[in-house]
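Re: the 162-residue chain
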Amino acid sequence: MPDAGPGAVPAHRQAGALLQHVRQPYLLLGEAHIAETMGLARAQRMDACGTVLRNNIPLAIHSDAPITPLDPLFTAWCAVMRETSSGRVLGADERISVEQALYAITIGAAYTLKLDHLVGSVEVGKLADFAVLGSDPLAAPPAALKDTKVLGTMRGGVFFPA
C-alpha cells in the first residue's frame, strides 16, 4: 500500500475534501498493525485526526460496525486517547481533545453527510434528536470518555431509554 504520508493532508484541504476516520482500530488492532501490516512509523500516522483538524479540514469519526463496536463515545475516546490494547499510545500528536471528538461524532458527521441543516446539533429549526448522557463528558478526565453512560435518546420529541 503506498504511504501517503503527512504531506497528503494539505493536498486534501486544497481539494476541498471531507475526511472520515475509523477510530477504533487503535485499541482493537493497533498492535497487529505495528507488527504485521505497516510498522510503527506508519501506524502512528494512521487516522491522523490532529493533522486533519490543524489543517482546517472537516472531520467525522465513526466505527467500522459491524467489524468494530457501534459505540460513538468509545469511538470518540479512541480518537482522544489513541491507545492500543497494550496501552501504547500511537501518534500522540494526532490525539484530539474530548470537545473535538464530540464535535466529530455529531456536527462533523452531520456535515459530511450533508445533513447538518437537520441534525448534528441542538438548534432552532433542526430535529431535536440527541443522546441524553448521565454526566458531562467535558467535565471528566479524557480517559473517562468511554465510560460516560448513555441514559437514552430523544427522537422526535420522545425519550427512548437506553
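Helices lie at 8-14, 25-37, 39-45, 49-54, 72-81, 98-105, 107-112.
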